[in-house]
Write a structure and sequence with these properties.
Blueprint lengths: L5 E4 L4 H14 L4 E5 L13 E3 L5 H10 L4 E4 L5 H6 L1 H21 L4 E3 L2 E2 L23 H20 L3 E2 L1 E3 L1 E3 L12 H12 L1 E4 L7 E5 H13 L11 E2 L3 E3 L1 H9 L6 E4 L4 H6 L8 H7 L7 H15 L4
Parallel strand pairs: 1-2, 1-4, 2-3, 4-5, 5-7, 6-8, 8-12, 9-11, 10-14
Antiparallel strand pairs: 11-13
Helix pairs in contact: 1-7, 2-4, 4-5, 6-8
The structure holds nicotinamide-adenine-dinucleotide.
Nicotinamide-adenine-dinucleotide binds next to α1 and β9.
């Protein structure tokens, strides 16, 4: 394992921090270079190298890859669904050009592997709502979803045309306590915990019965590393794999939090994110990921809520 040298781009984000820490644990701190537009990250300090880098600058990125003898890239920099709707051209430019920059460098430098996440946002109103299959009608209506769908086919193209070993997962909404979410439609499921801790109440920007596919961060990190460690011959999907964790609504997560904080109250004030949420499936069929590389989620809603509550409780001052 230690012959690999990994560059994580977008390492200061919600996924980046935890993925970088886990990769450093597995590959050794010095072998995992964290990179982000942000200058530094408190949570990553003293566990390995950190460089400030703009993934849009292909020349500078290329120099870093050569200078640091990088063999693998995890590209996490992106503009997410809710922020993307506020600035569609910025979202399209960053989400597409960052991927093309990385794929070109991977081809030229013959990198061993690339990881790039897609999202359940590739699906649109015409996709099946329940157990949405791997292969189905895909007609996204958000700029984020359009960029992810196009990105999936760029990954497939670079794999078929140039043999780049690029792998991808369509993450559901991710719930975590170490690093804050970066502007997605599923961010409510993280905010609700902080508001419960601090205010004992939460006003949700989605309606009570809005079911969405979600996943707890430890499952997301494990799925990523398991996919990346799988023998390439076993992978049959080179666009992006469906993976499933849990499906729940704001009303259900509020009830789960009430188990820990009986006085907790939730109210609802849906905004523009309701339309985004309603364009997505409510649950995902991940049979192909289970068959190809043995994917199996560990956290259900109760286990996730208990773990989040315990960790936030020990980290935050209470009111
Ligand atoms: N968090 C989720 O729920 C979720 C769900 C599905 C897919 N994803 C995907 O996973 C990936 C990571 O998501 P996240 O939630 O960690 O996002 P995030 O917004 O929390 O983090 C993205 C990071 O990228 C950095 N960045 C932005 N522009 C950059 C640039 N030009 N150069 C270098 N770094 C730059 C940001 O500073 C930030 O630290 C994205 O591709 C996202 O689409 C996330």
């Amino acid at each position: 394992m230690s012959k690999e040298k990994i560059l994580v781009i977008g390492a200061s984000g919600q996924i980046g921090v935890e993925l970088t820490l886990e990769l450093r644990r597995l590959y050794g701190g010095a072998n995992v270079v964290a990179a982000d537009l942000r200058e530094e990250n408190e949570l990553l300090k003293s566990t390995g190298p950190y460089v400030s880098l703009d993934v849009m600058n292909r020349e500078m990125l290329h120099v870093q890859v050569i200078r640091q003898n990088i063999t693998q890239i995890y590209l996490l920099a992106a503009i997410l669904s809710a922020t993307g709707e506020k600035n569609p051209s910025l979202a399209w430019n960053l989400n597409m050009q960052s991927l093309l920059n990385v794929l070109e460098i991977a081809k030229d430098e013959k990198l061993t592997k690339v990881y790039w996440p897609s999202s359940i946002a590739v699906f649109g109103p015409s996709s099946p709502k329940q157990n949405c299959p791997q292969h189905t009608v895909i007609e996204p209506v958000t700029v984020y979803g359009i960029s992810k769908f196009a990105g999936e086919f760029w990954c497939n193209y670079y794999h078929r045309r140039y043999g780049v070993d690029v792998r991808s997962i369509r993450y559901p909404g991710l719930i975590s306590y170490k690093s804050s979410p970066g502007g997605g439609t599923t961010d409510y499921a993280v905010e609700i915990f902080y508001q419960a801790m601090n205010e004992k109440k939460y006003t949700c920007f989605l309606k009570a019965e809005t079911y969405l596919p979600m996943m707890y961060m430890p499952d997301a990190i494990r799925s990523t590393i398991e996919l990346m460690e799988t023998d390439a011959t076993k992978l049959t999907v080179r666009t992006s794999y469906n993976v499933s964790g849990i499906s729940f609504s704001p009303k259900e997560i509020a009830l789960a939090i009430k188990q820990h904080l009986p006085e907790f109250k939730i109210s609802y004030k849906p905004d523009y994110r309701q339309a985004i949420a309603e364009s997505w499936p409510q649950s995902i069929d991940d049979t192909q990921a289970r068959n190809d590389w043995g994917w199996k989620p560990e956290y259900d809603l109760e286990k996730l809520t208990t773990d989040m509550w315990k960790n936030l409780h020990s980290a935050l001052p209470q009111k």
